[in-house]
Design goal:
The complex is a heterodimer of chains A (263) and B (106).
Chain A lengths: L41 H32 L3 H11 L2 H10 L6 H21 L1 H4 L4 H9 L3 H12 L7 H24 L13 H13 L6 H17 L4 H17 L3
Helix pairs in contact in A: 1-2, 1-3, 1-7, 1-8, 2-8, 3-4, 6-8, 7-8, 10-11
Chain B lengths: L10 H25 L6 H8 L1 H16 L2 H17 L2 H18 L1
Helix pairs in contact in B: 4-5
The chains are: A mainly alpha (263), B mainly alpha (106).
Membrane topology (chain A): Multi-pass membrane protein
Main location (chain A): membrane
Keywords (chain A): Cell membrane, Membrane, Transmembrane, Transmembrane helix, Transport
């Protein structure tokens, strides 16, 4: 993959000396400046799909876990598949399976889904400098298949100046296919497997998030917000009901970062 | 009515799935929609940019704190494999293998 590195010369605020291969996920300074021409064509979709494929296969492991958990929670294969096909939000779906008891706590499930997925609105906003130059149909359509993994790849792609406007769509299609396909496999197998703890399936969610954290680590500047998030989440988890500690931890870190910005 | 748990579609379950879909779609398009109408300062953007990582940490913290040495050890394996190989699938397999192994030992 060639990176056109000409357009990001003026980063006034950051001390980060980033290499192209890592940490390019969340550099706020780079988003406002670029005005390279943006395309939205079949070639972009292809590039996104192929780049994302290895990652999408990794997401598939996660989909298998979701399918198994869904079957154990009492969903049918059809219901689990429908959820993966329309919700397309791994963490929220797996957390929902933890909440999935009889009678269904509908409000808790929907609100927790909202809380966990609120990050998508920030991720979508981060795509704004590029996506506002697409037609509403192109931009909103692409956002429907946005997940953590293809968002990160797309940010890296767009920041490199390639101008591939349909990269999110292409990479999202790869994620969607693997996610839905793996859900079917996991849900079909999940009816057979007995105790998930015995096979380490219960550790999948944590393992995925640990891997994501390693990817999101952006050098020492990440340390303070992450410590704030960690401490806030652990304290809030003991005092606040439900899964709200997730949102609280994230918001506390963001608040501290806003205060720290000048320093 | 098919009741073998494969093709069954319970109306309430489908309703909850649709509700989850609606709120998720709102979060996915909402931020972008809002940003086109309001100005976001660089300061706020800096805050927003730490959110994904911070939320990941906020999910992990209590979960790992509730775990034991087997989970902590396996978490270390995931970090190590991910850091060295940058391959999610490999890191997941390593972590799950490690947690099964450490639990069997413990």
């Amino acid at each position: 993959m060639t990176k056109l590195d000409g357009s990001d010369a003026d980063r006034d605020h950051s001390e980060s000396l980033e290499t192209p291969s890592e940490g390019a996920v969340d550099d706020p300074q780079a988003t406002a400046v670029e005005r390279e021409p943006l395309t939205f064509d079949r070639e972009d979709i292809r590039a996104g799909l192929l780049t994302c494929l290895p990652v999408a296969i990794g997401v598939g492991g996660y989909g298998i876990a979701f399918g198994m958990l869904a079957r154990q929670a009492g969903l049918s294969v059809a219901e689990a598949t429908l959820m993966s096909a329309t919700v397309i939000a791994g963490a929220a779906q797996i957390v929902a399976m933890e909440l999935w008891t009889d009678p269904l706590p509908v409000a808790a499930i929907v609100l927790t889904t909202l809380a966990i997925n609120l990050r998508y609105s920030l991720m979508g906003a981060a795509l704004g400098p590029w996506f506002e130059r697409l037609s509403p149909r192109q931009s909103y359509g692409s956002l429907l298949v946005m997940a953590d993994e293809n968002w990160a790849l797309t940010m890296r792609e767009l920041k490199s100046g390639s101008g591939r406007g349909a990269f999110l769509l292409g990479s999202g299609i790869a994620i969607w296919c693997c996610w839905v396909g793996a859900t079917i496999i996991g849900a079909t197998a999940g009816g057979v497997i007995g105790d998930p703890a015995r096979y380490g399936i219960d550790f999948v969610l944590a393992a995925v998030f640990i891997a994501l954290a390693v990817e999101l680590w952006d050098g020492r500047s990440t340390l303070v917000p992450w410590l704030v998030a960690l401490v806030t989440a652990i304290v809030a988890a003991t005092f606040v009901p439900g899964r709200w500690y997730i949102l609280l931890g994230g918001l506390a870190a963001a608040a501290v970062e806003v205060i720290r910005y000048d320093q | 009515m098919i009741s073998d748990g494969t093709l069954a579609l319970d109306p309430l379950v489908v309703g909850v799935i649709l509700a989850m879909t609606v709120v998720t779609v709102l979060t996915k398009v909402g931020g972008f929609w809002l940003l086109r109408r309001i100005e976001v300062s660089e300061r706020l953007e800096a805050g927003l940019s730490v959110l994904p990582g911070a939320i990941v940490i906020a999910i992990l913290g209590p979960e790992l704190a509730a775990g034991g040495p087997a989970e902590w050890g396996a978490a270390g394996i995931v970090v190590l494999v991910m850091w060295r190989t940058e391959n999610i699938l490999l890191a997941l397999c390593g972590g799950i293998g490690a947690v099964v192994l450490f639990r069997a030992l413990g």
